[in-house]
């Protein structure tokens, strides 16, 4: 048996943990640089605030309806997510963290007399310990657990937030209730194709006469999904894997027009990429530089620019990767043009212990020792105080976050204060 545990309106719930006066009141969360709405509380949804709406377009409406707006506080969300997952790990050792607010749990080999009651215990513990509400769906397969979770979330009075698909009758009823666009893995384009084929629900998706069409459009992935919805488990919990690409990209809060200013940003992005490589004990061969001009202020239709180069040896040194990124920047940067976004992506990643050494061209061995000292210092202090010479010591990510809440659990300066009288 599998369970999918999903945190309800996770970002909004995180903001309410330390601001309980907002319980029952409408909240929305904005994306990076306070761009679009990416999370809404149930109260904000009821007021008709659309998901993905640009903030400047609904600014007046948000004020009129007295909706509280927050910038994204990923440090807080990430920390609370790890605490939720730690609690769920107390219910079974078999857990797959699927996203920041979702996890699959597997109970094979365990004896659970009442799954719905077990789900209610998960809800109770996450609520009592963290004040984070969750919904829990149980089913024999991961895809059906997704369906069960949606039912638990949609009908809180009837299910109390925990629902189990454990009979054929419940499975068919749940599939007939689930719209095809809500099925796990059916995106916007597939949804249009499915409806053109007269597939409107998850139940339609499982009918035998649609098997050939699904195989043609979705291949083996569609076939697996269909089997899962039919109750045949073919997807197991996935083990955490090292990432194949690491990307650090950011939109700027203002315009960047000079090479020196852009060089500082690119070097910083490359340094963070190298840091992430070392954290997962990997090295990379490929480095990609990405620049985006202000598309509203260019004469030509092209405003995105990419350049990739391959290192002669695998590396995770900040100095090596930054130097290559800056070299590429010199080749594609146009002085005086207005740039709004940039990024560095490292690819062709291999485990550090599989690195091959070369006879004639190799990285300076002192780099590794220097990186170890820098990483140890940053781990001890929690701040990136040691940087390359072309980085700005005073500068951080500089995202536009005018409505940012405190980092209550990750920054000692923002720790929650209680006045005792």
Automatic annotation (TrEMBL):
Highest taxon listed in the record's lineage: Bacteria
UmuC domain sequence ranges: 2-187
Keywords assigned by UniProt, alphabetized: DNA damage, SOS mutagenesis, SOS response
CDD domains noted in UniProt: PolY_Pol_V_umuC
One Pfam family, short name: IMS_C
Similarity section: Belongs to the DNA polymerase type-Y family.
Name of the protein described by the UniProt record: Y-family DNA polymerase
